[in-house]
Design a protein that fits this description.
Strand content of chain C: 5-15%
Largest interface: A-B, 104 and 76 residues
Number of domains of chain A: 2
Number of strands of chain A: 10
Strand order of the largest sheet of chain C: 2-1-3-4
Helix content of chain A: 40-55%
Number of domains of chain C: 2
Shape of chain C: globular
Chains: A alpha/beta (486), B alpha/beta (207), C alpha/beta (257)
CATH class of the largest domain in chain A: Alpha Beta
Structural class of chain A: alpha/beta
Largest sheet of chain A: 6 strands, parallel
CATH superfamily of the largest domain in chain A: NagB/RpiA/CoA transferase-like
Shape of chain A: globular
Oligomer: heterotrimer
Number of strands of chain C: 8
Number of helices of chain A: 23
Low-confidence stretches of chain A: none
Mean pLDDT of chain A: 95
Strand content of chain A: 5-15%
Chain lengths: 486, 207, 257
């Protein structure tokens, strides 16, 4: 069953950041030519791969945790409606207000209205994929509200007027020297003697944001997990910017995709082990905040939870693809992906880059709006191995390629070729003829062991950088039949 | 139809009429840890030091002196009233002259140099302290704004792994899990300690 | 044991010496080799490019061609992985449940060469002689879908005269990925460039692997660079002896040691 068939809406166009303006191969070309970018990505992903491998390796029951994580997420999706209703009830009972948003536009309207109601024109933000996805900052700006990103990497992206390129470390494409340059250029009152030492850069960010935290009246966050059973929300972070936002302002607005919940409190014992080791390669991240509604005299006294669909129910309708909703946004799949490492996050055109982005973005938008993404993988399988909730990303990629092929109403040259090949490969007599025809290609080689580099497309896509061997005079099966007289 | 009803109805459509049974969750991962206390304390110490936290051990009789010593080492010359403590911190843990948190506006806590609190539970394997908003742990802003945080942990509060730790907590309390000083990996994915939260974490381990 | 050899479409059409070497090796080990004449393809390229419906008749042909075989061996991790992980699934999705069941049953008797040698036949020393400096690239599908682990390395270590050198970043994909190499040619080439740099850093004469497809990719790049390092399939190395080193190869080391 597919979402199209069931009439479930995907994420709307014209709002948010799920669609690129170029296909993946086109966008990747720029990144591949940028030696600095490739060096930065190679260095950063190699660092994190090593750290992750070390801390995962020391957990003797990692595979059991991984399978439990997978099962919990599958159980969540199987009764998503019931868990959401339970969550709403508990949050409300504890003094919070729950809002529902069908899509990005509705979510942006709700948040804008909530901020306006407090009378403020600026908010502090905790890094949140959901708010990036729906383009909340732009919507707030349009309403005259300044949204200050407080996560260091988000700050780097925001100050540099750049786009995020990684789920965990949105500024992974920048190295320390580039970050120093951005800070010197954009931070009012920054020490002109600022060096590119990471600690000095972090201190500059601390000084820049300190006063904003202390004066903020409204904070906006995402959520890593919500517990349906208790109404508890959680944010997992490192710097303490999350705690500042979740603790100091009078009003907290949390924007969360409807899939980011777990049924029971106990389920957190699995994810709080899986997530930090998979994302930052730490045994535990420095800070995890858990809160349930409003606590008198401790933290925000007004709490709003905005539950966003924005195409998620369309993903849920796909029995193969729905596993992408299990993602806990650790980014381990990005860090091990050879395609991500070369092409970088911007090439994916969505806030969700890398292997998980290649299966999530096309499903949220409808596969035709991100048709090149399912092909942006060599299907090497490193992502599946690294995924802490065992999402079979390669299988979903292959599934989405088929969805794309089957959505075509006209026969493409590629489809015609694959159909002809299928006809040959399912009929031994035709297949032998086809092999014999392929063997004629050897004459193009004029006696050399390889074919000429100048071949027509699509073969030229191969021969531009690799030689193609000349086909042999006789196939193995022909030779064998001749020798064995059958 | 309200957005709520619409989304719930979409989910029901997506899942279909005859829903698949909810998959069984095998919890065959470790949920207990029978290592002796001494070993758990050693693991906790190792993990915290790995995060660049300072760990000092003392006997129950020496807590106040150890806390005072740790504050001296972390802050250097300071006035006793630069230190604010959780309202439920036992009197015999308190450094002389420290101010008790009295519920003043949270941003006022930024004026203090250091905080002393207790914890609800400590998790050895991950080097994690959990504060639960109780009088012993203090409210959340207390352990956040001053630049130096001293947490007193009693040996009996230390458990092995995350499952045991979470099982001991008040689920609806405002919880903060702290694993080392604040840090970031946002620059080239290399960890740097000290950003917005306390840049210094001292753990006084009692017992 | 009577072994049915699945040459795979690529090997059969483009590098028949790999299938030949597989047959020679199995016969030398005392087994009877049959080559079902109606074999063509496992269907992987169709499935992985999005033509899963069109893959179904290919799967049906494969199942027909190998019906009744006791054990099926292929010199390819990738094709065997497709037989194990994709064939039954695409048939089932198309509503062809009988075909799916047959494909699943056939998959249980289908082995990648190194798995067959080590697990089924229980040999690691196949009596081969290959006097060259060799580095081994574990192909992604043999590594992550079939979990062949160190079986190929154990086989290579037992080859007399062979100087095995470790490949840096061995588990990184070479960038082939079937139609990925064409649809995302630039990214594929960037991956290939790094793979070749690692291969060349070993100063090996030969880069080997269990998949002719990945070797065609790496070898195509090395040949374009005129690097002097060749790609040779694992089966060809294991089939080589003092008397008959696999086609076109010297029995003398190319580099003196």
């Amino acid at each position: 069953m597919t979402a199209v068939f069931l009439g479930l809406p995907t994420a709307p166009r014209g709002v948010g950041h799920l669609r690129g303006d170029r296909s993946f191969p086109d966008a990747a070309r720029d990144a591949l030519r940028d030696g600095q970018l490739r060096a930065n990505l190679g260095h950063a992903t190699a660092t994190i791969r090593g750290k992750r491998a070390a801390v995962v390796g020391e957990v003797p029951d990692w595979e059991q945790l991984r399978q439990a994580g997978r099962a919990i997420k599958a159980a969540t999706m199987a009764r998503l409606d019931e868990h959401l209703v339970a969550l709403e009830e508990r949050v409300t009972a504890r003094g919070g207000t729950v809002h529902w948003a069908r899509d990005a536009n509705e979510a942006n309207e709700i948040v804008t209205r909530l901020v306006q109601a407090t009378g403020t024109d600026e908010v502090v933000k905790v890094k949140s994929m959901a708010t990036q996805e729906i383009g909340l900052n732009e919507a707030l700006e349009a309403a005259g509200i300044a949204a200050h990103e407080t996560d260091l990497a988000e700050l780097i992206v925001q100050l540099g007027d750049d786009k995020p390129s990684h789920i965990l470390v949105p500024a992974i494409h920048k190295n320390r020297a580039e970050i120093r340059e951005i800070f010197l250029r954009t931070m009012p009152g920054v020490d002109p003697g600022l060096t590119d030492e990471p600690r000095k850069l972090a201190m500059a960010a601390r000084a820049h944001l300190r006063e904003r935290f202390l004066r903020a009246r409204v904070a906006i966050s995402g959520a890593n997990f919500a517990v349906a059973e208790t109404g508890t929300l959680s944010v997992v972070e490192s710097e303490g910017n999350g705690r500042m936002c979740l603790t100091l302002p009078q009003t907290l607005i949390t924007v969360m995709g409807i899939e980011k919940l777990v049924p029971t409190w106990r389920d957190l014992e699995v994810f709080l082990q899986l997530l930090p080791r998979s994302s930052t390669g730490e045994r535990m991240n420095p800070y995890t905040s858990l809160w349930t509604g409003v606590t008198p005299d401790d933290g925000p006294q007004e709490f709003h939870l905005v539950l966003v669909d924005n195409g998620r129910t369309a993903v849920l309708a796909d029995e193969v693809g729905r596993e992408a909703l299990h993602c806990i946004r650790c980014s381990a799949c990005l860090n091990v992906c050879p395609v991500y490492e070369r092409a970088g996050g911007h090439a994916y055109g969505s806030v969700y880059p890398g292997p998980i982005g290649a299966v999530l973005s096309p499903q949220l938008t409808g596969v035709e709006d991100n048709a090149s993404l399912p092909y942006a993988s060599s299907l090497c399988g490193a992502c599946y191995d690294a995924c802490p909730v065992a999402i079979d990303i390669p299988s979903i990629l292959v599934h989405l390629r088929a969805e794309h092929v089957e959505a075509q109403t006209r026969t493409t040259p590629e489809a015609a070729a694959f159909r002809a090949l299928s006809a040959a490969m399912s009929n031994p007599r035709l297949w032998r003829l086809a092999q014999r025809a392929a063997g004629l290609g050897r004459f193009l080689a004029r006696g050399k062991p390889t074919l000429p580099a100048a071949l027509p497309p699509p073969a030229s896509k191969w021969t531009r950088t690799r030689d193609l061997p000349a086909p042999p005079r006789e196939t193995f099966t022909q030779a064998w039949a001749r020798e064995h007289g059958s | 139809m309200s957005a709520r009803d619409d989304i719930l109805s979409r989910i029901r459509t997506a899942l279909g009429d005859d829903r698949a049974p909810v998959p069984e969750i095998a919890r065959d991962y470790r949920t207990t840890d029978d290592r002796p206390d001494a070993e758990l304390l050693a693991v906790l110490t190792d993990r915290l030091e790995d995060y660049k936290a300072t760990v000092v051990r003392c006997t129950p009789a020496d807590v106040a002196a150890t806390v005072a010593g740790a504050l001296g080492a972390a802050l250097g010359d300071h006035r006793p009233e630069d230190v604010v403590v959780a309202p439920g911190l036992p009197a015999d843990w308190q450094p002389a002259g420290a101010v008790e948190d009295d519920g003043r506006p949270p941003v006022a806590l930024a004026d203090y140099a250091a905080t002393v609190t207790g914890v609800a539970v400590a998790i050895a394997e991950t080097g994690t302290l959990v504060l639960d908003g109780s009088p012993l742990s203090g409210r959340r802003a207390l352990s956040l704004l001053p630049d130096c945080l001293v947490c007193v942990v009693e040996a009996a509060q230390v458990v092995g792994g995350v499952p045991e730790g979470l099982a001991r907590l008040d689920r609806t309390a405002p919880l903060t899990m702290i694993s080392g000083p604040s840090a970031t990996s946002d620059i080239e994915l290399s960890r740097v300690e000290g950003v917005h939260g306390p840049r210094t974490l001292v753990v006084v381990l009692v017992g | 044991m009577k072994v049915a050899l699945f040459a795979t479409c690529l090997v059969d059409t483009m590098v028949p010496q790999v299938a030949r070497a597989t047959a020679v090796l199995l016969e030398r080990l005392g087994h009877e080799v049959v080559v079902p004449p109606d074999q063509a393809c496992c269907g992987q390229m169709h499935v992985n490019t999005g033509y899963r419906r069109e893959a179904v008749p290919i799967v049906a042909n494969h199942v027909r061609a190998f019906a009744g075989a006791e054990a099926i061996v292929a010199p390819s991790g990738s094709c065997v992985a497709s037989i194990h992980h994709q064939q039954a699934a695409v048939a089932r999705r198309a509503g062809e449940h009988a075909l799916a069941d047959e494909a699943a049953a056939l998959a249980e008797r289908t082995y990648e060469l190194s798995q067959f040698l080590v697990d089924v036949l229980g040999v690691t020393d196949v009596g081969a002689y290959y006097p060259h400096r060799v580095t081994y690239h574990p192909t992604c599908h043999s590594l992550r879908l079939l979990r062949v682990g160190d079986r190929p390395l154990r086989l290579l270590r037992a080859v007399r005269g062979l100087d095995l050198v470790e490949l840096p970043a061995a588990d990184q994909c070479c960038g082939f990925g079937g139609t990925f190499a064409v649809k995302n040619a630039e990214t594929s080439t960037a991956m290939l460039t790094d793979k070749m740099a690692n291969v060349l850093s070993t100063h090996a004469e030969v880069c080997t692997a269990g998949d002719a497809s990945c070797l065609m990719h790496i070898g195509g790049g090395l040949s374009r660079l005129r690097s002097g390092t060749r790609t040779v399939h694992l089966a060809e190395i294991l089939a080589s002896t003092e008397e008959a080193v696999s086609p076109h190869q010297s029995t003398q080391p190319a580099v003196s040691r």
